[in-house]
Design goal:
homodimer; nine-stranded mixed beta sheet; elongated
């Protein structure tokens, strides 16, 4: 039987008493700080280390953006703002959070296929960059910018004719609601020559959550070719190319961490050899999950321990209302366990348990047939990979439980709690 | 090409101008009342009609309970409270909503595998009925009732050794976190003889969302046999048997509506012939989805109309943040379209469109390759079957959009809006 702790992501360890440490403190201490369970703890030290690793691996001039949708906790955004070169947002709500966190408006890009007029007003009004998704949206932005007497700074988002091979979510290579098909781009680019627009460049997002460095490098190279081909039709020199994201994190035992060096090396080579028409362009990666997922832990307490038909169930006070993806109900075809350990015990004897949430639905599963040290009612369980697409990507109001606490464990600043 | 309107649930029609009517008013009028889109409108007239149909089909003494988790909108709960015989809740939050809606505490049952101590305090303190899920929970309830100096009124939930054949969610027939296995029930029943408990009866929930009357009748018959077998070991006469729910609604074209009369006739026969030991027992059905799903409409406006790789996309201001189940991401293996129509137009020419939400994720699909009248930007689309497991069963905070309005369209009382 393999050691259950082998499933802990790197960056986490136990103290001499076997207690799980998060940012150097026992998990139970964070639960005490929160005053209740369940809760999320985000280790800002791990986020910083990840950003540093990305900077070290990538070409020096590459801009690193944070995709706010991955985790919009205000305290986290405040801590991230000075560490990255921009925020990518997907709604006026996220735009407001981004500016409140101290990110300069011109370093915020707003993408999304269904922007409302009032969202275009907010973005153009504050000087954020619009990632235009269609000819229709360009026309609406034109009207609004003219009415406001403001220039609209825009990227044109292109639906790439290729996909990111093996991505968790494919966002190119066929009919998509995102961006403008490459074939239709020249007409839109011509429209963007209107002086009400400040054309900044292109945005291409080919897929997400990919662990294959070669596939990512391939998609980035294809993106460069695609953009270079369109640049001649652009109304102004391309100042920025947002290359999208796609860098994945390992959720499951069979997953091998992404070879970040390989991605960086390939991108450096491609950028060094890029066509002259992109010679003065800047390039950006937009990373959400890759920066924060592994830094987050969801802590939930065991409420009941019961047997049914020969199987052991550990019933917790958490559940899919905070951890929809971990329950296997968000973009998942076959449910697999996210890594989970007992935060108080690491030694055997071991047992096999089904860890479930507190919701009165069979969908509420946190770990099926997982090996754990013998676990008592009151024990704290730690579900890892909870830093991205956790709280806000879950149906928090389902069954009427109170919201979970979120704590940013920041060794540099003390810890911030957003209740 | 079949008429797109053929997919509208019964109870909905258009006026002479082709506008969809909800509770007798055009959909657009409800959107104007709300002041924005997207929004939910629940037709209380349809809910009343459904309750009346259930009462007419079922044995006269059968209690009809509403499962609050299906839709906990406060205005809806207030309207439902006088129409049903009880509310079933799954958290202290739902318990508070149920009492605030005017339901007497003794008519509220609280089930759920992970009840917190503070939730047991709330339930025992107000005199609600606890549906006990395990021996461990019984022991916690004992301690809390003793401390409060209150008797705890309890049902014992039994994990049935059978499942509801063909149910959308199976909740019996094997190892489950819900209730006590029948084999373990006698020991718990003995424990419940303690005078701190007021033993009321049994709760058995074999499955949900089933359209097969015969399968439901079979499960109800098996439930009666199961409970009759356990009643001899009970510490007091069985005053109430909660038979669970399971009555399904038709989401998809191939679905045939449940034969409610057949369920009622079979249950009447079974109850008339029930064993003497249950002779003085009352029986209850707990219905959530069946009472409210078909009464709800989600209205969302078309923000953009675009083509990609030869396919038409209609991008709306709604999405999976309000309609997770409709997007195919909640307990669904194969995504199928919920019924959707253009609320402003019913006549051709027709076109085939992919209707997507406004979120920047490929998961955000509302209808794939659906036939609609040619649809313009600004048109209002109506997604049906939105009355249950809609707003609160969706990740509302995902991507930071504002909450949708909810309107209870009640011809008897005027309309209530919960913002």
């Amino acid at each position: 039987m393999s050691d259950p702790d082998s499933r802990m992501p790197s960056g986490f360890a136990r103290d001499q008493d076997g207690r799980l440490l998060i940012a150097g403190r026992p998990a139970e201490a964070w639960a005490e700080d929160a005053g209740d369970t369940p809760l999320f703890v985000y280790d800002m030290g791990l986020v910083r280390a990840r950003i540093a690793a990305v900077r070290a691996a990538m070409p020096p001039a590459l801009r690193i953006h944070y995709a706010v949708k991955a985790n919009p906790m205000p305290e986290l955004l405040r801590a991230l703002a000075p560490l990255v070169d921009g925020f990518d947002v997907a709604s006026a709500g996220e735009l407001a959070r981004a500016t409140a966190a101290g990110m300069a408006a011109h370093a915020i890009s707003f993408a999304g296929p269904g922007k409302r007029d009032r969202e275009l007003v907010a973005a153009i009004g504050c000087g954020a960059v619009l990632s235009l998704e269609s000819a229709g949206e360009a026309a609406r932005a034109h009207a609004i910018a003219a009415r406001l007497g403001r220039q609209a700074t825009v990227l044109l988002r292109i639906n790439p004719p290729f996909e990111l091979r093996g991505a968790g979510m494919r966002m190119g290579g066929g009919a998509r609601p995102f961006g403008v098909d490459a074939a239709d781009a020249p007409a839109v680019l011509e429209y963007l020559a209107d002086p009400v627009f400040d054309f900044m460049g292109f945005h291409v997002f080919a897929g997400s959550q990919n662990l294959d460095a070669e596939a990512i490098a391939e998609a980035q190279a294809a993106t460069l070719d695609l953009v270079a081909g369109l640049a001649a039709a652009a109304p102004a020199p391309v100042r920025l190319v947002n290359l999208g994201g796609g860098l994945g994190v390992p959720y499951f035992p069979a997953d091998r961490p992404l070879d970040l060096e390989a991605v960086g090396t390939a991108l450096s080579q491609r950028l060094a050899a890029r066509p002259a028409i992109l010679g003065k362009s800047a390039f950006a990666l937009e990373l959400g999950r890759y920066l924060v997922a592994e830094a987050g832990v969801y802590l939930t307490r065991v409420i009941d321990r019961k047997h049914s038909a020969g199987k052991l169930f550990l019933v917790t006070d958490g559940g899919l209302h905070h951890q929809l993806a971990a329950s296997g109900n968000f973009g998942t075809v076959i449910r697999r366990n996210y890594p989970l350990v007992n935060a108080l015990r690491s030694h055997g004897p071991f047992e096999t348990a089904n860890v479930v949430g507190c919701l009165c639905t069979p969908l509420d599963r946190l770990a099926d047939a997982v090996t754990l040290p013998e676990t008592a009612v009151g024990d704290l369980l730690a579900l890892f990979m909870a830093g991205a697409y956790g709280r806000t990507a879950s149906p928090e109001a389902f069954l009427g439980h109170p919201p979970p606490a979120e704590i940013l464990a920041d060794p540099l600043k003390g810890s911030g709690t957003d209740p």
